[in-house]
Amino acid sequence: MAPLLKADAASIERAALIIRSGGIVAFPTETVYGLGADALNSAACARVFEAKNRPSFDPLIVHLADRGGLEGLVKSIPPPARALMDRFWPGPLTLVFDKSELVPDIVTAGLPTVAVRMPAHPVAIELIARSGRPIAAPSANPFGYISPTRADHVASQLGDAVDLILDGGECAVGLESTILRIDDDGAFLLRPGGLALEEIEAVIGRVADASGPRARPNAPGQTASHYSPSTPVRIVKSAADAGPLTGNEGLLSFRGFSGEAPFAAVETLSPAGDLREAAARLFSCMHRLDSLGLGLIYAEKVPQEGLGRAIMDRLRRAESPSVDRREGRPFPD
Ligand code: TXA
Ligand code: MG
């Protein structure tokens, strides 16, 4: 079992040393915990794929501590991307650029593009800065499973596969970053996430939604199933539509549940109906329900606006693994 250390100057320095020597470290970001390696070291990145049991066709996101590091990794920075960086970096926004020679193919899964973001978390920034390398990091969960929003999620899922886990507490955003590709054809949403589409469109105008299963061939990681608990999930309009109930079902409620139905367990995302709070709690509620050995988890729909879009995206992916596996489609992350 890897050491799980509270993030402080000494443990971050130790983690940075591990990154510099080709090891892998789990660390907190504002979105979810990442599993990091030196992005310029192919062998270290290969260990990340291996630890997650992640297929090599699913590329990693490169994390930077400051914008200075970006120029060397990409061919060019389109003006709308620059405007978004000015407004939202550091923060839960990943941008996909044409990559430079410097970025190893294993990081981008052979694609000519690289995904980059600057996390808004002091531990992540300190770790990247101290290691002096860009850090390639997928979410620190086994491939296909729910992303970790707390250090103990990482410890229980990947504790034996990493060299060190930095504990920086609970992730404030709780959903993975929003991923955007900007090229000569326009701006494309590749994954809804912790930054709402409305906020992005307020800066650069219309963004085309390319996040559907087959919307765009060049958006790996966007096939249906992923972010899945081991317990089957079914989406319902509201708890009243759940059933028939045998007493072994859980409910993931949006605003709370006061009915009579015999759910074995209920988790509530946000009593006030606040989508930001709901997003921040989504994965930890799913982790809790998934640990109870239930037969089925009913999940209530949330409004399709702001962060609700990303929440519904994750719920739909959690609902669909059995379907996807049957059809033999890949189900990345
Ligand atoms: O919030 C986040 O983004 C977290 C934290 C750790 O930063 N990371 C994360 O990484 O969610 P991961 O590996 O779980 O998801 C990365 C997604 C994948 O769906 C992958 O396909 C997509 O990013 N991606 C990476 N490089 C890409 C590229 N060049 N073009 C299109 N999509 C890319
Ligand atoms: Mg992931």
Please give a structural write-up.
The chain is of the alpha/beta class and 333 residues long. It folds into two domains: 206 residues, DHBP synthase; 98 residues, Threonylcarbamoyl-AMP synthase, C-terminal domain (Rossmann fold), CATH 3.40.50.11030. It contains ten helices and 15 strands. An eleven-stranded mixed beta sheet has the order 1-8-2-3-7-4-6-5-9-10-11, sandwiched between helices. Strands 12-15-13-14 form a four-stranded parallel beta sheet, covered by helices on one side. The longest helix is centred in the last third of the chain and has 16 residues. The chain is globular, with a radius of gyration of 19 Å. The C terminus is likely disordered. Threonylcarbamoyladenylate binds next to strand 5, strand 6 and strand 10. The site of magnesium ion has 5 residues, from loops.
